[in-house]
TrEMBL record:
<feature type="compositionally biased region" description="Basic and acidic residues">
    <location>
        <begin position="764"/>
        <end position="776"/>
    </location>
</feature>
<feature type="region of interest" description="Disordered">
    <location>
        <begin position="753"/>
        <end position="778"/>
    </location>
</feature>
<feature type="domain" description="LPS-assembly protein LptD central">
    <location>
        <begin position="219"/>
        <end position="711"/>
    </location>
</feature>
<dbReference type="GO" id="GO:1990351">
    <property type="term" value="C:transporter complex"/>
</dbReference>
<dbReference type="InterPro" id="IPR050218">
    <property type="entry name" value="LptD"/>
</dbReference>
<dbReference type="GO" id="GO:0009279">
    <property type="term" value="C:cell outer membrane"/>
</dbReference>
<protein>
    <submittedName>
        <fullName>LPS assembly protein LptD</fullName>
    </submittedName>
</protein>
<dbReference type="InterPro" id="IPR045659">
    <property type="entry name" value="LptD_2"/>
</dbReference>
<dbReference type="Pfam" id="PF19838">
    <property type="entry name" value="LptD_2"/>
</dbReference>
């Protein structure tokens, strides 16, 4: 009998299962004990099965688990080469891509030894023919992976000894010569290095003799020093602690320090970061200067998936500057930013975009180029709700601010809009369409207020006035909005407007006639009475603080049609011209007559000049129409596109190429006016040129517009030295009647923009869609100015604008600028960006900046240089990429902010 068969029979008699195979997977809780057939018998010794080989045999272990002991769950294990059992010593040997899984613990290695007596597992790699280690242990527990040269782990105590470990903790990597792993997953390392570089031999690291690691919590180090490319440096500390969490955690923000020429030495940007919850965070940073200035910034971001996201930032700065005479100039600045973007869901929607503060904040504190050059800022907080089939409700709080003129306007309003109602139409919209069934009406109401620090707007009567009801008599036309808020509130204008339009439409052959009637009513809290007083040499304005209403109505009819013209050319090419002429007539009575009492004839000077002034002067919605209006408006819209048949297309379809996307001409003629009945003629055009020539270029976007003044001007004044016209007067004579053409161009503007950039591949587009759920990548996409995308090899944007305007016969005022920006990746690691422009009038370069970025694997270098102008400066930073060590950097700055 063969020895192998004899061995199997002996094992079967003794109750032993023997398994050896390739690609074998076995499960067990413990090596089973050997029970004798008769309790009175003493069990005979069991032989050690150590060198048995059964090639090409697959045997599955069917052992039943023994009573529960220190091992709490099933152990799964497998090996590609062989599995050998030592039954007596209860040891198992796994060879060739061995794998053991115990609960949430997984161990992979070239060789694994399991000892059930000591409840330990030993894993190691093996050397190949060249001496290179292969199959070194990979240990995974609760999602944390450890790479090692050799390790021993105890299932019962959950402790282990690991040699040559490499593990990732948060954004960092840890390498240790020898590690003791505790049952609470903490590790004590000897001869360790902590880094954020993922190379085997990292570019830099923090070398420490002793290190304690609490996975997903923190890393604590004893005395340590920096290493650069394996070379020790003298930079170090007696101890250190580094966060190792994958989610946001609260902590300290370390400040920058330096010197400002006019503010003194400073500590800037230090503070606290609070991870308030999974949805909200808050950072609080401060700055202090030795001359007494200080600042505070609160910045919070929030996001609720599938519902809303946004951010709130508030900054306060007390700027103390030392003047040339050693005196101190003090300025208090603040700025608030808030953006809230909802995901439309249900019947209501709330959104916010707030950008406001003191007029000197950006000049004194902002390092953002757009904030520095932009004089105007706008804000809007809005809420809207759909009211079923009735209509909709909207609430808005708008704000606009000009930091140059220092004028601030805050406008709250609420509006109610009713959907259009067809009273003569059958339910469901069926039936024949005629002018009766097409008759409809609707309603819109709006209540609005306006707070402004521009008192000149309230006093703008066009003549000298004395307001007896003015409580705050400010001499300035513009006051500070917040420090004089009482005066701003006293000058608040508010009111309401109701509008009911009634309209229908009639189809006449190829024409559509649309008559309509509109009724509008105004509600105001006050009205004015005017009295000329010779002693004051001014008009006294007296307020009647009582509810006042006024109304007006008008009627109109418009006639519209659409024509097409086709121009055929040789060789599968044709042009389609679509033009839409419109003619309308409107009539509005004169609501300034004494019958309505909406206006008053007032003497405005000693010469006895009489003017008709509205009793609702300065009303937020205006006043009923002054004078009768019988106006005919006319317009013509054009579109021009080419159609080219694709020769290689078997379907012989035409491809559309836009030539002129729009060309509009507008004007009107008022029959009720006694002079200057024809209005200015406005024109505008928009098109894209050469958009389909190259795949990475969308062509030139061209916008053109202007105004023609059809009336003749006479010279009233010239400069005696230069002979230039300095004054002119408009005459009620058409230039066409005088043989001088259609009119004189009083305003014209041209804008041309283009952008060159390689097209994105399908792989890049798919990756962008995947990144939408990644918080880090989402932050990059939402804030592209903070990051450098090396995947875009190059890009170039060019914007050319020219505008010219003139008053009468005076010389035109022309502004012409060319702006360009872009970037280019010189290599996979080098990227250069630029931004500049040229002012043709000033004959000088506009704001210019140059940015250079270098990817240094685990580090990055950036250079920002503004070579000239009021913000001449440069910043050079070499910093670790990882946010966990973002304060590990070398910086050199020469900023305008500190000069």
């Amino acid at each position: 009998m063969r020895p192998a068969i004899l061995l199997l029979i002996i094992c079967w008699i003794l109750g032993i299962d023997l398994a050896y195979a390739q690609n074998t997977e076995v499960k067990f809780d413990s090596i089973p004990s050997i029970t004798p057939a008769n309790d009175s018998l003493t069990p005979s010794p069991v032989p050690v099965l150590a060198d048995t080989i059964l090639p090409d045999t697959v045997v599955t272990d069917t052992l039943q688990p023994s009573p529960k002991g220190d091992i709490e769950t099933t152990i799964d294990y497998s090996a590609e080469d062989s599995i050998i059992y030592d039954v007596v010593k209860q040891r198992t040997f796994l060879y060739g891509n061995a794998k053991v899984k115990y609960g949430d613990l997984t161990l992979e290695a070239a060789e694994i030894e399991v000892d059930m007596n000591s409840k330990t597992v030993v894993a190691r790699g093996v050397a190949d023919s060249t001496g290179t280690m292969q199959g070194e242990p990979i240990f995974t527990e609760q999602g944390v992976t450890y790479n090692a040269k050799e390790m021993t782990y105890n299932f019962a105590s959950k402790k282990g000894i690991i040699s040559g470990i490499v593990t990732e903790q948060g954004d960092g990597y840890i390498q240790g010569e020898r590690v003791k792993k505790m049952d609470n997953d903490e590790m004590f390392m000897r001869g360790a290095i902590y880094t954020t570089c993922n190379l085997v031999h990292p570019h830099f690291g923090i070398r420490s003799r002793r290190l304690k690691v609490a996975p997903d919590r923190y890393v604590i180090s004893g005395p340590f020093n920096m290493e650069l490319n394996g070379i020790p440096t003298v930079l170090g500390f007696p101890f250190g602690m580094f966060p190792a969490k994958n989610e946001r955690t609260s902590g300290l923000i370390f400040p920058d320090f330096g010197e400002s020429q006019d503010r003194g030495f400073y500590l800037r940007g230090g503070g606290l970061y609070f991870a308030l919850s999974d949805y909200v965070d808050l950072s609080m940073t401060t700055e202090f200067y030795t001359l007494g200035g200080w600042g505070l910034t609160l910045d919070s971001r929030y996001r609720k998936r599938y519902k809303y996201s946004g951010g709130l930032n508030f900054s306060y700065r007390k700027v103390v500057r030392e003047q040339d005479d050693f005196s101190k100039a003090i300025t208090n600045d603040y700025w608030i930013r808030w953006n809230h973007s909802p995901q439309t869901k249900g019947a209501s929607r709330f959104s916010a975009s707030v950008n406001a503060g003191t007029s000197t904040y950006n000049q004194n504190n902002s390092v953002n180029f757009d904030n520095y050059v932009n004089p105007a800022f706008n804000s809007n907080i809005s809420y809207s709700r759909t009211l079923g089939s009735f209509g909709s409700l909207g609430v808005n709080l708008r704000h606009n601010q000009n930091v140059r003129t220092e004028i601030v306007n805050v406008t709250p309003d609420i509006s109610l809009n009713m959907n259009r109602v067809y009273p003569f139409r059958k339910k469901g919209g069926g039936g024949k369409k005629n002018f009766i069934t097409q008759t409809s009406f609707s309603y819109s109401g709006q209540a609005k207020g306006e707070l402004t620090n521009n008192l000149a707007k309230r006093r703008s009567f066009g003549f000298e006035v004395v307001d007896l009801e003015q409580e705050n008599d400010f001499e300035e036309d513009t006051i500070d909005f917040f420090s004089n808020f009482t005066g701003v509130l006293d000058n608040m204008e508010y009111g309401a407007r109701h509008s009911i339009p009634l309209s229908t439409s009639i189809n006449i052959s190829y024409f559509t006639l649309s008559p309509s009637i509109n009724y509008t009513e105004y509600w105001y809290p006050r009205r004015y009475n005017y009295t000329w007083v010779d002693e004051l040499d001014a008009v006294v304005v007296e307020e009647e603080n009582e509810f006042s209403r006024a109304y007006e109505f008008s009627t109109s009819a418009s006639l519209q049609t659409r024509f097409y013209a086709f121009y055929e050319f040789k060789g599968d090419f044709r042009i389609r011209h679509m033009f839409t002429p419109t003619v309308s007539f409107s009539y509005r009575p004169d609501f300034s007559t004494p019958d309505f009492d909406y206006y008053q004839d007032v003497q405005v000077d000693k010469e006895g000049t009489i003017r008709r002034v509205s009793r609702f002067q300065g009303g937020i919605f205006g006043s009923p129409g002054l004078g009768e209006s019988k106006s005919m408006s006319f317009g013509l819209s054009n579109q021009l596109e080419a159609k080219v048949r694709t020769k290689n297309d078997s379907t012989q379809k035409y491809k559309k190429i836009p030539i002129l996307q729009s060309l509009n001409i507008r004007g009107s003629y008022d029959f009720a006016r006694d002079s200057f009945q024809l209005s200015n003629i406005s024109f505008s055009a928009r098109t894209t040129l050469f958009g389909d020539i190259f795949p990475n270029w969308r062509g030139f976007n061209v916008n053109f517009g202007g105004t023609l003044d059809p009336y003749v001007y006479e010279i009233t004044k010239t400069d005696p030295i230069t002979g230039k016209i300095t004054g002119s007067r408009r005459v009620d004579k058409l230039m066409w009647d005088e043989g001088q053409g259609l009119g004189r161009v009083s305003r014209v503007n041209l804008g041309v923009t283009t952008r060159f950039q390689p097209p994105k591949s399908k792989k890049q587009k798919d990756q962008e869609r995947k990144n939408e759920d990644n918080p880090v990548m989402r932050d990059i996409m939402n804030n592209p100015e903070r990051y450098v995308d090396f995947n875009i090899p190059w890009s170039l944007s060019v914007n050319y604008t020219i505008s010219s305007s003139r008053t009468g016969l005076q010389d035109p005022n022309t502004v012409q600028t060319l702006n360009f920006s872009g970037d280019i990746s010189l290599t996979e690691k080098w990227k250069v960006g630029f931004r500049s422009g040229y002012d043709f009038k000033e004959k000088d370069l506009a704001f210019t900046s140059i940015n250079i970025h270098r990817d240094l694997h685990c580090w990055q270098m950036s250079l920002n240089w503004i070579p000239f102008g009021p913000r001449t400066s440069y910043n050079i930073d070499i910093a670790v990429k990882s946010s966990i060590l973002q304060d590990l950097k070398i910086s050199k700055r020469d900023s305008w902010y500190d000069r």
